[in-house]
Design brief:
This protein is mainly alpha-helical and about 160 residues long. It has helices at about 10-20, 20-50, 85-155; strands at about 65, 70, 80, 85.
Length: about 160
């Protein structure tokens, strides 16, 4: 194989980029990033204030001191004790659950139903095609038998 037989790097890159699944993936990443902003806005603008009715407005403000009294300096660094920031973890979990619920109910379920309908239509059309094919074969056999029958009677 010579160097002329190998596709150029640019041609290979162009083929890779123009593949449908790469474009779909790029669109999914862009939409996912925008969707993340929406979910974060819902958590920060709706859920945090609702939780704030019972305590601090920001979930990140919820924390516990695991060992000894926690001492925080002016920079916000813990100098003594073990500071557990469980509120930020709770916020991240809520964001994840909301994102997962929206993706499942608005994307996965409708797509599953759509694909199931398409598969049912495809199976139905395949059954109809097979029935039509069997009917055609039967008709062709009848025609063949009708054409062969006069020949067989005349020779007898």
């Amino acid at each position: 194989m010579t160097d002329n037989d190998k596709p150029s790097l640019l041609a290979g890159f162009k083929e890779f980029i123009t593949r449908g699944n790469v474009i779909d993936l790029a669109v999914a990443v862009v939409i996912g990033a925008a969707f993340t902003n929406v979910v974060n806005s819902v958590v920060n603008g709706v859920i945090n204030p609702l939780v704030g009715a019972f305590g601090t407005k920001d979930l990140a403000g919820y924390s516990s001191c695991l060992k000894g009294p926690c001492v925080v300096n002016d920079k916000g660094e813990v100098t003594s004790g073990i500071h557990i920031l469980w509120g930020s973890v709770l916020s991240a979990v809520l964001t994840f659950l909301i994102t997962a619920a929206v993706v499942y109910f608005l994307m996965v379920v409708p797509m599953s139903r759509y694909l199931a309908r398409q598969a049912k239509k495809r199976r139905h059309s395949e059954v109809e095609e097979k029935a039509a094919e069997l009917e055609e074969i039967t008709l062709l056999r009848d025609i063949r038998d009708a054409l062969v029958a006069p020949r067989g009677e005349g020779r007898g």
